[in-house]
Write a structure and sequence with these properties.
alpha+beta; 4 strands
């Protein structure tokens, strides 16, 4: 049950992360969502302080601790964060 709940939380975070276009009000929500996605994937970050949209469902997230990740949905429909 815990794994299923984690997956649904990840899906919900990703949907809200990638659903809206980037605007000033949405920027804070996007940063928060990317922070949650990176944390759910078990990667060190702390807090996302900047995000640059690379394409649909594809962002470069810069963390407060200096780490950078490309967060995207792969061809299999899974959310992936690759260290940059």
């Amino acid at each position: 049950m815990g794994t299923s709940l984690t997956r649904w939380a990840l899906i919900a975070a990703c949907v809200s992360c990638f659903a809206a276009p980037s605007r000033a009000a949405d920027d804070a929500a996007l940063l928060k969502d990317l922070t949650a996605v990176i944390a759910l994937l078990g990667l060190p970050c702390g807090q996302v302080v900047n995000a640059v949209r690379q394409g649909e469902n594809d962002h470069i997230a810069t963390c407060k601790d200096g780490n950078r990740y490309r967060v995207f949905v792969n061809a299999g429909g899974r959310v992936v964060a690759q260290k940059q």
